[in-house]
Design brief:
The complex is a heterodimer of chains A (321) and B (101). Chain A has 321 residues and is of the alpha/beta class. Chain A is built from eight helices and 14 strands. Chain A is 29% helix and 26% strand. In chain A, the strands form two sheets. Chain A has an eight-stranded mixed beta sheet, with helices on both faces. In chain A, strands 9, 10, 11, 12, 13 and 14 form a six-stranded antiparallel beta sheet that branches. Chain A is globular and about 70 Å long. In chain B, 30% of the residues are buried. The termini of chain B are far apart. In chain B, strands 1-2-3 form a three-stranded antiparallel beta sheet. Chain B is built from two helices and three strands; from the N terminus they run H-E-E-E-H. At the A-B interface, helix 1, helix 7, strand 11, strand 13 and helix 8 of A face helix 1 and helix 2 of B.
Amino acid sequence: MAASRDGRMRMTVLGGYLGSGKTTWLRHQLYHGQFKDAFVIVNEAAETPVDDAVLRVAQKLAVLAGGCVCCQARSELVSLLRGVCDARSGLDSSGERLQRIVLETSGLADPGPIVEAVRGDSVLVHHIVVSEIIVAVDALNALQQLRSEPLGRAQVEVADRLVVTKIDAAQVAALTRLLATLRRLNPGAMISGTARGSAGGLPAYDDADPEPLPEPPAEAGRSPIFATRLVLDPTIDWTAFSVWLSALLHARGDDVLRVKGVVRTPAGRLLLQGVRKTVQSPEILPEQKERVDNVMVVIGRGYSAEDLRRSLQYFATAGRT
Amino acid sequence: MCASCGYPAAPGHWTDAGVADPGERLRARFRRARVLNAVLRAYGLTAHDGGLIPGVQIATLSGAQAIVDDLAGVWVAAERLAGMPVDPLDARFLGAGGEAP
């Protein structure tokens, strides 16, 4: 992929709501040689990164965990990008210079302020040009998110390219309605479909009616979305944990927006990922000795972190006597 | 995942993914029934898994019952039989743990 004519690096911003399939899509692209030689930056709102475990195919990878780069971790992003620019400037013209950066944002990020941060920084603006904003859209959950989450709408509206994920699992009628809604929200964006990372064809949606979207509810009156880190200590076995998590997602699936983590079990290291009430079949990850496992990240609202921990502890000791 | 870039996924319902060995799987089913009993007791329900046939049996004290395939089904059946939501963040589950009130 060529650099821009002025010699600046191109930056692709990959956004999308919690659990929309950003990492799965990126992993597939990297595996098939897209974004070759790019410097990949993964941002996670929670302190415990998970996505880097599945993005090992990237040659150059940095993780910014513990804050969203569109707001509280923006200065960390700027400082990381400045470091990348410095390293690149240190190479003479015969060296292989970095041409592209891919930033995978957290699901809670609005790509708009990120682009502004790069454009507004006196150093970065001379080295980096944001070439494309790609936003992953979850075919199963996006309509609900667009109705209720102003952030979901903001992400769609700023995209140059919308990648509709999980199209193999969606009903055709719901999918065409979503596509028509996306077209109305962002008429200029290119729309494509994927299933489990691979490109897939989309149904015709010219005749479909878009979802009538109400005014987004004001964020002011709602409790904020936050990330909770749950450490699964040795007293919490898989059985108790799976009973607890299945109960939690059943009862609180509208509030628990995202669950992810790597759990060490007798059947191997399981990558557990949930979006609202749906948990996908866990992938069995290879051994990575340097990683800390048995930490789950739960992102949502309408409950307290302490209640999650106490409830999990209750289930872990239930039935032992 | 696509066939080449992902890792293999555990088959079956996700809650069954943590146990691979058949003997361990049977032990896990018995343990799961004990955990469920401790939790569902608060709602006047019992859970039974004899290990011989697939599924978990959820029953009320008056004898109404349902047999479900997996944990997702357990919570749907439990709510229906109990006539109220089953919420793990309910105050009754936020105590020290282990014994239902």
